[in-house]
Amino acid sequence: MDALSELKEKWFHLSGKYSNNLETQHSIFEKIISSYSNETRHYHDLSHLQKMFEIISTFENKLLNPDSVHFAIWFHDIIYDARRSDNEERSAEYAKNELRKLNTDTTLINSVTDLILHTKTHTIINKNESIDMQLFLDTDLVILGCDENVYVDYMEGVRKEYDHVPAILFKMGRKKFLKKFLEQEYIYRTNEFRVRFEKKARKNIQFEIDQL
Asked: CA 54 → CA 49, 59, 133, 142, distances in Å?
């Protein structure tokens, strides 16, 4: 099964729990695929979704509300414009509107939007966060702890998404963003991610800073 088929299977399995309207399920899925396949995306794309689903699948037994986390993965970057600073808010609102079409309840919708909104402040760790929040946010940052060649591709992808920003300004902003991670006691919220990815993530981030 190819990657797109796998994603489609995941989507219909999840959305089918809440709606038996195949036309609605299909319509939302097509809009998701279209958004993540936009030519302006070089990192926040379908591969990012695939990687997140791959990683989160290893923690299914720890999630309190897997459906909320899965929906949040689908929609967390549905709106992505590198020229704007409100992508998380717009993505959360988009998710809310689409989830209503699937007849999901208010509790689930609120959970999904809360997860999405917290991707705006990855570097702020709240010890009172739920395990779902912790694992979702850690999964979103798994790229930081990947092998160096994968990380280099990520670096290049991010730069392409910000190709409208002059090099000197991009370097200044990117360094400031990356240093926030290194200034924290931990990059990742959960012990599981810290054991697997923390050391590598710090090495990769320092490597990128040095390249800038």
From this structure: 9, 10, 17, 11
Lookup: tokens for 174: 């990117």
Structural domain boundaries of the chain? 1-140, 143-212
Rounded Cα–Cα distance for residues 192 and 32 (Å): 30
| Torsion of Cα atoms, 111 then 116 then 119 then 125, to 10° | -10
- Angle at which helices 46-56 and 3-15 cross, to 10°: 60
Token pair in block for residue 194: 């810290």
CB 11 within 8 A of CB 29: yes
43-74 b/e with 16+ CB inside 10 Å = b?
Answer: bbbbbbbbbbbebbeebeeebebbbbbbbbbb
Whether 137 contacts 119, CB under 8 Å: yes
Each residue's pLDDT tens digit, 134-161:
999 999 999 999 999 999 999 999 999 9
How far apart (Å, rounded) are the C-alpha atoms in residues 202 and 145? Answer: 8
Domain 1-140 belongs to what architecture? Orthogonal Bundle (1.10)
CB 212 within 8 A of CB 174: yes
pLDDT at residue number 69: 98
Q: What percent of the chain has pLDDT over 70?
A: 100
pLDDT single digits (tens) 74-129? 999 999 999 999 999 999 999 999 999 999 999 999 999 999 999 998 888 888 89
